Amino acid sequence: MGRILKSYIFWTYERGNFHYDVMVTLILAFIFITPHYWNYGDHPSVGSFAPSEVVVRSIGADAFTYQIPAEQVRGNSSMPFESRLEQSIGRISGPMIIDHYDTLKDASGKVTAYKVWAHR
Fold first, then answer.
1. % pLDDT > 90, the chain
2. Per residue in 16-61, pLDDT tens?
3. Which of 30, 86, 93, 101 could join 116 in a cystine, given CB atoms 3.0 to 4.6 angstroms apart?
4. Rounded to two decimals, what is the model's pTM?
5. Strands (E), 12-84
6. Which residues touch 56 (CB under 8 Å, ≥6 apart)?
């Protein structure tokens, strides 16, 4: 038994051999089964965008949704709010017509971003 275990560790078996197949099966089982039982911490973080990052999604012909961080819109308070939204969108897509917008808040109720529906 010790000789077999030593051969498994040093991978001395030829391809097509029973023990070779067992080793490959154990490796594949480890690769595909352990993520269900072990948290490797490699999941993407949701909603952690850079403060200047605007997320744009197409929702049809010449229609888009924009997720604009609140820090980017708070900039120039002398302008009307919708003008600041249009300015943030205009830097990315050019002139757009805003249909409506919604505020996105975190768990504590703080406004984190604005979701804007716009079209050309």
1. 32
2. 899 899 999 999 999 999 988 988 877 766 655 566 688 899 998 8
3. 101
4. 0.55
5. 55-60, 63-69
6. 64, 65, 66, 92, 93
